[in-house]
Amino acid sequence: MTVSCTSPASALPPAPAPPGDGRGHPDRPCVTELRLSAFAGHRRAGFPLGPLTLFAGPSGCGKTTALRAYEALARLGGGAAVDEVFPDPAACVPDRARADAQRRRGFRIGCTADGPEGPVRLDVAIQAEPDLRIVGERLSTDGLVLLQTALRDPARRTVQAAWHTAGSAPVTRAPLPDDRLGTALLPLRVAGKTDGQRRVLAAAEQMVVALRSVFACDPRPGRMRTPVPTGSGRLLGGCDNLADVLWRTRAECTRRHAQLVAAVRAGCTGPVTDLYAEPLPDGTVRALLDRGDGIRTRLGRLGDGELRYLALALVLFTGPGVLEVDPAGEVPAALQTLTVLADNLDRGLDPRQRTELLRLAARMCDRGHIRLVGAVSDASWAAGSTGVTVVDLTP
């Protein structure tokens, strides 16, 4: 599937009308649309997200920006403060955006999460100047606004929130902090005594579960070549500690490790019979390829493309228990989906490695426990592939 997107200016989008399409919804909550109403170079942009999505286009078209916005929503959904998520908020303000009479400028992002509750929309307005704060938020489903917040008094560090109750009073009103996502706070604020409150809770929990468990991954071959100290065995976003992770995972699941070896064999030059890590006397561990006949190759001798391919394959075969992510611990793993965000997904990969990685990603994403959103300069090599959504941002 190929989608072309443009970005003119817009306001906070309205709550949608009921879809009424009668289709089933996934058991595992997942983000199915990313909206950048006004964010950096994007205006009124809506991007469909499938299990395997590739943002494509030349440098400067906004691929990295889209992934950055997704990661920001994920962190806000996990409860992070807005200043932690946006250390340079002015960079997120749309190009040529002018300040109002109070010198205020900001940006707007949002998403849709599908799941057992049906499509749930989240739209967030963030003020970047003069003070960074969340000034508006709306959670809605089937045309019904479940949560709405607005900044009433700029002198206070709160927003006025109103959420659906459908009891003796149609809504409940209360102040919420202006530095946190209200949707993530609702499970602590809503009693769940009425049908309306229970609907609000279910929608908020679906959104939070869909947003959390995001792993931003950009393997750095230069840091994967040297031995590393043993640690938690959880893979970092740059895959610097790949050897430590292999030291842990090789013995945890022999079947999964065998699949990883087969994938590495398909993408690396020369024979590969095994992939493992060995401890060194100084307390570090290094990774090696077993070439057979007693020949071993240190990962430090592999090319950049081989190392990136190996690291990305490892990410696709593992999960929240191995990757350095913040999963929703109160939700059973069977109901969670890990989303991998991979900027410059194809950097350094040759055509064979790209093909093999795409085939592996499509197979793993089809199982439903993992989703991949990547950015590539040219997706022609993936065009027509089953299960791949290509979002073309070419101007």
From TrEMBL:
Annotated region (Disordered), positions in chain: 1-28
InterPro entries for this protein: P-loop_NTPase
GO molecular function: ATP binding
Biological source species: Streptomyces plumbiresistens
SUPFAM superfamilies per UniProt: P-loop containing nucleoside triphosphate hydrolases
Origin superkingdom: Bacteria
Keywords in alphabetical order: ATP-binding, Nucleotide-binding
Protein name: ATP-binding protein
Keyword ATP-binding: yes
